[in-house]
Amino acid sequence: MHEHEHDHDEHGHHHPRSASEAELRTRALEALLVEKGIVASDAIDAVIDHYVNDVGPQNGARVVARAWSDPAYRERLLADGTAAIAELGYGGEEGQTMVVVENTPDTHNVIVCTLCSCYPWPVLGLPPTWYKSPPYRARVVAEPRSVLREFDLELPAATEIRVWDSTAEVRYLVLPQRPAGSDDLSEDELAALVTRDSMIGTGVPRAPAAV
Ligand code: FE
């Protein structure tokens, strides 16, 4: 679309640094857009700030707490994650098609992106560094139980572990089991128990604090 694109491609091919290909491409793209006056640098900062500060696991926690509190919502969430998540006002980039997988006493779900770092931004914000790391991406598929143990999550031997490989098209969110002792909690109080890792599947929700 722009004649200068090829110049930049030539410079962008070799990179001695340890930054990932995606990071380098992102930086190159940002520099190009700013240079051409297509976007201002502070506009990009605002997008990043939005995903760091405004969008985060608190959104996913609201989805989970609603599912725990409202059986009809839970059914809609499992049947069509994208639509049910949109009911709470979340959706869009990096989460256009959402599939929610439910943990049960028999089954524990974990999400990964084996190819790169696909992650459900609208409900979890930006992915943690370990999610993007090659060891996590490779090992959680090959030996999920060992990887979960490293997250201090020891699952019963009888629990089946299902690993879901995210793609550009489909992003997953784990619906964790509601912790014991949370029967009397409000939806807000329930949301406070839901950790980011419990929605990735590398953790479980915190039990309510003993009063
Ligand atoms: Fe990816």
Please give a handful of descriptors for the protein shown:
211 residues; mainly alpha; Nitrile Hydratase, Chain A; two-stranded parallel ribbon; two-stranded parallel sheet; 12 helices; binds fe (iii) ion
What does this molecule look like?
- This protein is mainly alpha-helical.
- The chain has one domain (16-210): Alpha-Beta Complex (Nitrile Hydratase, Chain A).
- The protein has twelve helices and four strands; from the N terminus they run ααααααββααααββαα.
- The protein has helices spanning 5-12, 21-35, 41-54, 57-69, 71-79, 81-87, 121-124, 129-132, 134-142, 144-150, 187-191, 196-200, and strands at residues 98-102, 107-112, 160-165, 171-175.
- A two-stranded parallel sheet has the order 1-4. It has a two-stranded parallel ribbon with strand order 2-3.
- α4 (57-69) packs across α5 and α5 (71-79) packs across α6.
- The longest helix has 15 residues, at 21-35.
- It is globular and about 55 Å long.
- The N and C termini lie far apart (62 Å).
- Residues 1-17 have low confidence and may be disordered.
- Bound molecules: fe (iii) ion.
- Residues 113, 115-118 line the site of fe (iii) ion.
User: What does the main sheet amount to?
Assistant: 2 strands, parallel
Please estimate the helix content.
40-55%
CATH architecture label: Alpha-Beta Complex
The parts where pLDDT drops under 50 for at least 5 residues are 1-17
Number of helices: 12
Q: What's the rounded overall pLDDT mean?
A: 86
Spatially, the strands of the biggest sheet line up as 1-4
**Helix and strand sequence:** HHHHHHEEHHHHEEHH
Small molecules in complex: fe (iii) ion
Overall, the morphology is globular
Q: What name is given to the CATH topology?
A: Nitrile Hydratase, Chain A
At the fourth CATH level, what is the homologous superfamily?
Nitrile hydratase alpha /Thiocyanate hydrolase gamma
Task: State the CATH class.
Answer: Alpha Beta
Percentage beta strand: 5-15%
Rg for CA atoms: 19 Å
Number of domains: 1
